[in-house]
Amino acid sequence: MTKVLIATEKPFAAPAVAAIKDIVSKAGYETVLLEKYTEKSQLLAAVADVDAIIIRSDKIDKEVFDAAKNLKIVVRAGAGYDNVDLAEATAHNVCVMNTPGQNSNAVAELVMGLLVFNARNQFNGKSGSELKDKKMGILAYGNVGRNVARIAKGFGMEIFAYDAFVPAEAIKESGATPIATVPELFATCDVISLHAPATPETIKSINYDLLMKMPKDAVLINSARKEIIDEEGVLKALTERTDLRYLTDIMPANHEAMVAALGDRYFSTPKKMGAQTGEANNNAGIAAANQIVDFIANGVEKFRVNK
Ligand code: 3PG
């Protein structure tokens, strides 16, 4: 029987798991569940005889592909697929897909929540500031970036966006002001919200020089990937510029140093939780299950990322 493994170190909410199981069983397949695993050996054992895997930020590398002899498809229930070795997937004849857009509102709402939390001094009772009339700069105008723009507009913020792949005309049509370069975006905006994937071009690209361009009292917020941050450069800039703040949903390697040096000008969630809502779990989990059934039953490869 066709087996679909849900391998989630950070589990979906229970209703999403139930919805996935329902889709899988209606297709005549079996669901196998591996949640909150702590050792790679557990993942290697679980993949041994499965045809399909649904993952989140779980790392799928050569060792996993080697161990998964029947594997035909991996669906990353979410947007970013930097956790999957695409070359190895292709070499093992495995299709990799993501589920773009399905969890993007959840991440955008977390961004706005962290911004309010920061503007009100982490709710410590001291007089804070407001987001209205501030300039919101969105770096990478994809599904999450556009949702941030939509909600930030409701706060009365002015929206600016940079995207290497989205034409300026399309940014304009959405009601945001296109900005031609990343340094210009940093120099223009009171808030910079990062939504770029981790790629060779973006890794460590958010650095000291960019932060030093930011206007007084500006805020950098990262809900994308920690790899895009030059962590030492950001710490140095915030140490020199005591007006700046840094908020992140992906705890940096130098978290302790950030806390010690920056106090409440820095905040990290304890564990990446932007996409951690019941709604996002349902949306992404259900999309992943449907994509697997469509691929195995009908050969549909929409959303394939290792073309
Ligand atoms: C994504 O790429 O979809 C988000 O970063 C969410 O990741 P998660 O599923 O690990 O929470």
Automatic annotation (TrEMBL):
Domain annotation D-isomer specific 2-hydroxyacid dehydrogenase catalytic: ranges? 21-306
Residues forming the D-isomer specific 2-hydroxyacid dehydrogenase NAD-binding domain are 124-252
What Pfam families does its record include?
Answer: 2-Hacid_dh (PF00389), 2-Hacid_dh_C (PF02826)
User: Is NAD among the key words of this record?
Assistant: yes
Question: What EC number(s) does its UniProt record assign?
Answer: 1.1.1.290
Keywords assigned by UniProt, alphabetized: NAD, Oxidoreductase
Q: What class of enzyme is it?
A: oxidoreductase
Cite a single GO MF annotation.
Answer: 4-phosphoerythronate dehydrogenase activity
Family designation:
Belongs to the D-isomer specific 2-hydroxyacid dehydrogenase family.
Q: Enumerate the PANTHER family for this protein.
A: FORMATE DEHYDROGENASE 1 (PTHR42938), HYDROXYPYRUVATE REDUCTASE (PTHR42938:SF47)
Q: Know the name of this protein?
A: 4-phosphoerythronate dehydrogenase
Q: Which organism does this sequence originate in?
A: Porphyromonas endodontalis (strain ATCC 35406 / DSM 24491 / JCM 8526 / CCUG 16442 / BCRC 14492 / NCTC 13058 / HG 370)
The uppermost taxa in this organism's lineage are: Bacteria, Pseudomonadati, Bacteroidota, Bacteroidia, Bacteroidales
> What's the encoding gene here?
pdxB
